[in-house]
Amino acid sequence: MDFELRRAREKLDKEQRERKERAKLKLDRERKAKEEAKKQRDAIEAAQRSRRLDAIEAQLKAEQQMGESLLAGRGVVFYKILEAIPFQGSGDKIKLPPSCFTELSDQGAFDKGPMYFQLSLVHQEGSSATKDDEKENNRTTHSGVLEFTADEGSVAIPPHVWSNLFPVDAPNIPLVEVRYVRLSKGTYAKLQPDGIGFSDLPNHKAILETSLRQHATLSQDDVLTVKYGELTYKLRVLELKPSSSISVLETDIEVDIVNPGVESERTDQYVLKPLAFGASESGLVEEGNYMYYKFSIDDDTWEKLVSDDVKIEVKIDAEANGGDTDLYVSKHPLIFPNRHQHEWSSHDVGSKTLILSSKDRNLGTGTYSLAVYGFKGTTKYQVSVHVQENSKHKVGQQATHSSSMEVDTVECRNCKHFIPSRSIALHEAYCSRHNVVCPHAGCGIVLRIEEAKNHVHCDKCGQAFHLGEMEKHMKVFHEPLRCPCGVVLEKEDMVQHQASDCPLRLITCRFCGDMVQAGSSAMDVRDRLRGLSEHESICGSRTAPCDSCGRSVMLKDMDIHHIAVHQKN
Q1: 188-257 and 272-388 share one CATH topology?
Q2: Which residues of 323-354 are buried (b: 16+ CB within 10 A; e: fewer)?
């Protein structure tokens, strides 16, 4: 019986322990559940609080942006995020979708004058930007508007704006924030070329002004591209006044062009080195490259040239090391002569001399450029320009005994020279053994027999050369050259083409005075009859008040107006 009671007590104790453990586990589960529920409530409340804060912050930011847009746009609020698409245009004017025209028109933006836009990069999620890229990701520039013909959701951007927004590489889907702003008219700009040579351009500020006519805005830290013929110069905007972004429309801007920094000088940029009369400069030119120099003819020197007292001698002494050079000379404004564009040239093998005299129609007072072109190999040379006095020999009367009228002469059957009859037999015997006449039509030069094998004529132009010069002659004068306008011609025809026919040649506009590309023929038949180029036809269509009556007259019609209305010649 005691045994049964003991077993019953043990069973009861066991059941009590199990109930206590189950109760404890239940309490633990309930506690954990309460803690988990509390955590979830806290997380939900934190998320809700964060969303409320984000909403408040977004609202404040939107209100701030609205205020900034109202302030920047002076009552016009326009803000879009569009996909950037490049297009080949000039200047800084962009293309917007037609819907933007409607939105801006409804707010009266067109009544407030020229429209300007601030363009900023939109940082995209997932882009691996570092601190070094932070400045590039925050790139901002400004532009005008060309037209409203872009596809919806996109903005067409010209190369100038594109290169300033994306100086390195554009993302796969470049997004740009476009915001309407009002800009003050600029009064001052400080620009810095990225390489030396821009200041050597004749009237370089006028060239810059011509380039800026295609722009509506300038922004600090932008890079402005200026083209002069085939040459391209890049200028960084260092400082602007009265603000960091300005309008350049219908305003006079004081421009300072500072020298490029040493660290930013480019080695591929052409440079004009000064060359004084009587001094020589040494140099090394590689094949296919140019070395440029400049010299000037002043009034005193020109007077001596006109009086035929002196001549200008341009000379290149080259080392005989297997290389060869060519010499090209031009008068400014053609400042960088080359194989296509020049006024004087010399292609002799080895050292070469070029004589300039007052008989040359293109010669006069002014500045001249001299180009040493590496024709073959690497050549060391010395270039010099000298003012040489003309040798004035007194010409006396010939002696009576030398006159063919008083001496009996006979024509040599071999060399065709007239020889005294008493010695003709001896001369012909010697001449037939040692001399030979070139059989080429129109040549007739008498050569020593050992020299005749090196005397050759070009099959194309018929000119006579030494055999060693023929290869260079064929390459220089008869190898087809391609003009940047697409025309393919030989050298002499190419020089004539680029001097008078090429639409890309530089001319001085008779209306604005700038050096500009001539372009194709004028569209207006009357302008073509006047001899106006495409640029001059457009530039001359600008109006100006007449000095006599104040009436607005097109510049190209001003002379006719003076004659017809005011009887002025």
Answers
A1: no
A2: bbbbbbbbbbbbbbbbbbbbbbbbbbbeebeb
Nearest-angstrom CA–CA distance, 445 and 469: 18
Residues 519, 523, 527, 530, CA torsion sign: positive
CATH code for the part of the protein at 188-257: 3.10.330.10
- Predicted local distance difference test score (pLDDT) of residue 404: 42
Q: Are 330 and 290 in contact (CB under 8 A)?
A: no
**Cα–Cα nearest to 115, from 124, 105, 127:** 105
500-529 pLDDT, tens per residue?
Answer: 888 877 777 888 776 677 777 788 888 888
Cis peptide before 167 (omega within 30 of 0): no
In this predicted structure, what is the pLDDT of residue 143? 94
Topology of the domain covering 272-388: Jelly Rolls (2.60.120)
Residue type, 191: L
pLDDT of residue 395: 35
**CA 504, CA 88: separation in Å to the nearest integer?**
18
- Rounded to whole angstroms, the Cα distance separating 128 from 465 reads 66
The predicted pLDDT at position 338 comes to 85
* Sign, CA torsion 210/215/220/226: negative
Separation CA 224–CA 232 (nearest Å): 10
Instruction: Please work out, in degrees rounded to the nearest 5, the angle formed at the alpha carbon of residue 218 by the alpha carbons of 216 and 224.
Output: 100
Q: How far apart are alpha carbons 97 and 58 in whole angstroms?
A: 27
Whether the CB-CB separation of 454 and 470 falls below 8 Å is answered with no
Beta bridge partner(s), residue 346? 327
Closest by CA position to 144, among listed 226, 221, 246: 246
pLDDT at 50: 83
3-class DSSP assignment, residue 466: strand
The confidence score (pLDDT) of residue 394 equals 36
- Stretches in the chain below the pLDDT threshold 50: 128-131, 263-265, 267, 392-406
Give me the pLDDT at residue 269, please.
Answer: 63
Single-letter code of the amino acid located at 96: L
What confidence score (pLDDT) does residue 403 get? 41
Cβ–Cβ under 8 Å, residues 180 and 78: yes
Q: Look up residue 40 and give its amino acid.
A: Q
CA separation for the pair 337, 351 (Å, rounded): 19
393 SS3 class: coil
- Give the distance from CA 121 to its chain's centroid: 26
- What pLDDT does residue 156 have? 94
Alpha helices in 80-183 (DSSP H): 98-106, 134-137, 159-165
Q: Where are the domains of the chain?
A: 79-123+138-181, 188-257, 272-388, 411-478, 506-566
Long-range contacts of 417-425 (CB under 8 A, 24+ apart): 417/446
Q: Which residue has the tokens 């008219």?
A: 185
Domain 79-123+138-181: state its class.
mainly beta
